[in-house]
Amino acid sequence: MTFSGEFLAFISLALVAIIGGMLLLNLSKVVHMVVALVFTFVSIAGIYVMLSAEFVAAVQILIYSGAITIIMLFGIMLTRHDDESEAKSGRWRKLLLLIGVIGFAFAVYIGIYNLDIPQTATTLHEHNTEQIGITLYSKYAIPFELTSVLLLVALVGAIVLARKDDEKGADKE
After folding, report:
1. Distance between the two ends of the chain, CA-based, in angstroms?
2. pTM (predicted TM-score)
3. Fewest beta carbons less than 10 Å away: which of 41, 55, 75, 114?
4. Which of 84, 42, 76, 78 lies closest to 62, judged by CA?
5. 26-85 pLDDT, tens per residue?
6. Which residues form a coiled coil (predicted)?
């Protein structure tokens, strides 16, 4: 049985994504967890490139690997947290985590095992960024705008919560 280069690339990217996810769950330092998350995001972007979804891969790298990770790091470094107050995970928790991951993998396997896709996409590789833009701004314009409003509300809420924490901290001093 010979393996093509595409198959080997997919297997290696998938393994990096899985290992990054497992490290994210099992590491104890938060900054190390974020680095594992970046590896997961970048490997998923590589899988998108293999699927000829270059725009989605670029968005994955720019938004998730860049912006979201930086925001997480700023949030971690700018908040007060006590590492001693966190309980260490025991063997039972790790065993339950392993059982959960295996159960999820089995459910996904059962879900896609007999999946029958009637047609193959013939125009997927042609102008996929243009197709995304046309679909997004014509068919999904309202959900797109609602998402932007939701993100704006979340930003304002985060600012309000941060100001309340600052006021409480100033009262204590």
Report:
1. 70
2. 0.61
3. 114
4. 42
5. 888 888 888 898 899 999 999 999 988 888 899 999 888 888 878 777 777 776 665 555
6. none
